[in-house]
Amino acid sequence: MVGDLSKENQMLRKDVDGLKLTLNKEESKRIFVDEELTKETYQLFKHSRQLKGVGYKYVWHREGKILAPKNDGSDIIFIRNANQVNDLLK
């Protein structure tokens, strides 16, 4: 049941993400749907963003996972916990 709902939400997000809404003839805006994170994952994501200060080019989350590559050509690291972030910050 939950898996089906998650797939349905992902499909809906793909349909809506980047959809251009016309508010009036002179103005249009794009909307983006952002996924929700659990409180623990959000705290880990905030902590992981410190990696940008030590040379990691990007830190982002997708489907509840926190990801960070060192640069454009490097492998993407899956951040699992705060201890891993602390080791990468050294």
Number of strands: 5
Q: DSSP helix count?
A: 3
The number of distinct structural domains comes to 2
* Unreliable stretches: none
The main sheet comes to: 3 strands, antiparallel
Shape type: extended
The helix content, as a percent range, equals 25-40%
Measured between the Cα atoms of the first and last residue, the distance is 42 Å
**Order of secondary-structure elements:** HEEHEEEH
The proportion of strand residues reads 15-25%
Output the structural class. Answer: alpha+beta
Mean pLDDT: 82
The value of Rg in angstroms is 17 Å
> How are the strands ordered across the major sheet?
3-4-5
Describe the structure.
The protein is α+β, with helices and mostly antiparallel strands and 90 residues long. The chain has two domains: 1-34, no CATH class; 35-90. The protein has helices at 2-16, 39-48, 82-89; strands at residues 20-22, 28-30, 60-62, 65-69, 76-79. It has a three-stranded antiparallel sheet with strand order 3-4-5. It has a two-stranded antiparallel ribbon with strand order 1-2. The termini are far apart. Residues 38-88 form the FP protein C-terminal domain. InterPro entries: FP_C (IPR057251).
